[in-house]
Structure formats: C-alpha cells, structure tokens
Write a structure and sequence with these properties.
Blueprint (H helix, E strand, L loop, with lengths): L2 H11 L41 E5 L26 H13 L5 E5 L6 H18 L5 E5 L6 H8 L4 E3 L7 H7 L5 H24 L11 E7 L6 H15 L3 E6 L17 H16 L4 H4 L13 H8 L6 E2 L5 H4 L7 H10 L7 H6 L4 H4 L3 E2 L12 H14 L32
Parallel strand pairs: 1-2, 2-3, 3-4, 4-5, 5-6, 7-8
Helix pairs in contact: 2-3, 3-4, 4-6, 7-8, 10-15
C-alpha cells in the first residue's frame, strides 16, 4: 500500500476524534527551523466530513487490539486497515507544511500490539519532527492509556498539547461497551500530565532554559449517547476534570452509530442537539461561574432540548427575576439570558456615566429577544406582565422557531484531498450569546 492510500484511510479514520484544538502555545521559530506556533491559535477551515484542515489530522494506524463496541476501528470490524511508518508521517507533515496546506499536526492512533509499542511509535514521530526536521509548528498528540509514564513524559517535552480520551462517562459504560479498558488506565496519564505541567512551570521560574512540558495543556473527549448516562452525570464529570486535572477543554462527541451491536442504542441520527446543549453548559461552567448542580439536578437530569441551559436555569429560578440592569452586579448580569461576558462588562462600564435604557442595551449588543423577559431598565419592564416561567418558555420557543432561517447552511472548506470521502452532515446552527 502506498502512502496516498494509507493517507486516504487514516485521515478518514481520524474524523471521529473531535478534540482537535490548536491554541495556547507560543513556540517561536529558531534559526534554520521550520514554522512556529502562536498563543493566539490557528484559524481553522473544515472539510465537509468534519476534519480540521489547518491541522494535519490523522491516525498513525487503525489496527487495534481492542474491540470497543462504539468504535469504528474495533478489531472485529471489517474495514480497510493501514499503518504509517514514523518516517512517512514526518515526511507528509513537513511537505504539507511547506505547501501551506497545514499549520500543525494532530496525531492520534488506535492501539497496535500494545500501548507501549504504539506510544513509542508516536514518540519517534514527534522527536524526529522537532530534532531532525527542526519543526516548530503546533503538535497535538494523543497519549495512549496504559503506556509507561516514561514514554508519555518524554513525548510531552516535544508537543504543545496532549489529550487522553475518556470516551465513556462511567465505569458501567466502559464495562458494557469497552471491557478491555478501565477508568484507572485512562485517569492515570491525565494525572501524570497535570503533575509534569505544574513541575515544568515551577522549573521555568528558576531555570528559563528548561524545556516546556505540554505548554498548551491537555484535553479529553466524551461520547454522548452511546450509554444511558444522563447530562447531569456527564457535566459533573467534566466539572471534576476541570478542577482536578486542569483541563483546557472537554469535547463532546454525539454518538455516531457505526455497528448493530445489541449493547448499543438504536438511533435514527446522532444526538447533535444534546451535544450542543452540553457544549453550552460547559461554557457556563468555565466562563459564567455556574456549577453543574445549579444547571441540573436529580429531578431534572437532562437539558431541555428546546432551550439553551442558561434560559432553562433562569426559568427554573424565575423568583430571581427581573433584575434592574442599572443596579445588578456583574455576577448577576451574567445570569441573564442574552447577556454574555463582554456585554456584561460593557454594561458595568457604560452605566458609570449614565443610566441605561433598552435602546442603549441594543447598541451594546444585548440579545433583547431573550433578555427582555428577565430585566428592567430604569424600572420599566418590556417583557410579559406575568412572570410565569411556563408562559415565558413558550414565548422563547416560539420566537426561536419564528426567526429560524429557511436557507440551507454549509460549512466552507479550504480544500479537499479526497472528494469521494465527503458525506452529508446535519449542521446545527450554533452562535450568539446565551
């Protein structure tokens, strides 16, 4: 099999891994070197089947010793298999970079032979790129659960970001769908990466010449919908990972049915709206000061698919509203649907000079179609006379569908190496402030 045939198979196999990010690292070019990474991140373009173009996103191999029911690369699945050599990956990365196709590498792999062997191959690749090719572009590497810590530690000195995919939110899910894996083997490398990152920061304070370890941090991915785990359980797991392992991001991937295994749920289509709600809730955890137990509880363990989590929370706490826009503190402003972080800061800054009315809020970029139900301006309320949560919910849902555009939306792609690999995806319209 030639390199292009391998590339066709292994780039397509990598599209199911959504934890593909490229920001947070400052790696400057050196004399005689090639490329650099910027802390501001890389602008992405996406192919039709969801692959990130600006990062060279591939698997080292899709040969796998595991038989995870939810995974397309499981060893019992009948599909085309391929495996690069380390030299082939290095050569492709450098040549694609020189042609301005990519600005970095996202390298993952199925587990071939055993975790140590696979991790050693990945280490060879990133070591060759940095030391032999003097490549200073961005590298995101997947750490293989079960590999020796010495190999993971060594690889972490060459890359900008590492990630370890948890994939399933509970031990029960792992036992059911991936019995060859266990939670401890996944969590252990995450703890190792966190510890080494902290040590690296402390060392750099004393010795500026000491190498950075995973300067852009670590991430993980959770599959949504392959098991019966509710949104509350998933969100509490994410909250624990942010607090306990200093993760940069948790990525949520709607389960795509890839087999007819009786242990898997029967879905007509991936739960994309649910995935979107979890991303919105994750944003609230990281930037709006919410806790998982505020957004959901045992009496309501799943998000409302018709409303974003912030609106849902506001309606369940309607006794806190309406708030006066000219007196509410910053934290309370962030709780108002339609007001984001930047808008809340603008309100705080603007009202130092004069009281704000609804016209002023519109100029500040507030989404008044949502916010008007939950605020007053100079004592005036332009929402509904009755602060009834069910009535407001109905109005919000009706307004959402009333303003839903009928035009088809397509993602732009910079180029496509293999047009035959593209497929039609359902696209969710995500945007605006919560």
């Amino acid at each position: 099999m030639n390199v292009l045939e391998k590339l066709k198979i292994l780039s397509d196999a990598a599209k199911y891994d959504v934890s593909c990010s490229s920001s947070g690292s400052n790696r400057r070019n050196k004399k005689g070197g090639l490329g650099e990474a910027s802390v501001s991140g890389i602008c992405h373009s996406w192919s039709d089947d969801g692959r990130c173009i600006s990062l060279f996103k591939i698997l080292f191999t899709n040969y796998c010793i595991y038989d995870c029911a939810y995974c397309v690369n499981r060893y019992s699945n009948d599909l085309s298999r391929a495996m690069f050599t380390p030299e082939e990956v290095v050569d492709l990365t450098i040549n694609f970079y020189k042609r301005n196709y990519i600005e970095g590498l996202f390298l993952s792999s199925a587990v071939y032979r055993n975790p140590n062997y696979t991790m050693e191959q990945l280490l060879q690749i990133v070591k060759k790129l940095r030391e032999e090719e003097n490549f200073n572009g961005y590298i995101h590497l997947k750490a293989i659960p079960g590999a020796d810590k010495e190999i993971i530690e060594k690889a972490g000195t060459y890359v900008d970001r590492m990630s370890v995919n948890i994939e399933l939110p509970s031990n029960e899910g792992l036992k059911l769908l991936a019995p060859q894996k266990n939670k401890e083997s996944i969590i252990k490398p995450m703890g190792l990466i966190k510890t080494k990152m902290i040590q690296s920061v402390e060392e750099r304070k004393k010795f500026r010449a000491s190498p950075k370890f995973v300067p852009a941090g670590q991430t993980t991915q959770l599959i949504v919908g392959a098991t019966g785990d509710n949104d509350l359980k998933i969100l509490k797991l994410s909250e624990g990972l942010y607090k306990g392992y200093n993760l940069k991001r948790v990525y949520y991937s709607a389960y795509v049915p890839v087999s007819a295994n009786p242990k898997l749920p029967v879905l007509k289509s991936p739960p994309l709206v649910r995935e979107n709600r979890l991303y919105q809730a994750d944003w609230l955890l990281r930037f709006y000061g919410y806790n998982a137990d505020e957004l959901l509880d045992n009496s309501k363990p799943n998000f409302d698919l018709e409303l974003d989590p912030k609106c849902d929370w506001a309606l369940r706490n309607i006794h806190l509203f309406p708030v006066e826009i000219n007196r509410a503190d910053y934290d309370m402003l962030l709780r108002v649907p339609g007001i984001g972080v930047k808008s809340a800061m603008r309100i705080i800054s603007s009202r130092k000079f004069s009281s704000l009315d609804f016209y002023d809020l519109k100029k500040l970029g507030i989404v008044l179609k949502r916010a008007r139900y939950f605020i007053t301006c100079k004592g005036k309320h332009y929402g509904l006379k009755n602060m009834n949560s069910e009535y407001i919910r109905n109005k919000l849902v009706i307004d959402k569908y009333k303003n839903e555009p009928n035009t088809d939306i397509e993602q732009l792609s910079m180029f496509s190496l293999y047009p035959s690999l593209t497929m039609e995806d359902n696209i969710i319209k995500i945007g605006g402030q919560f």
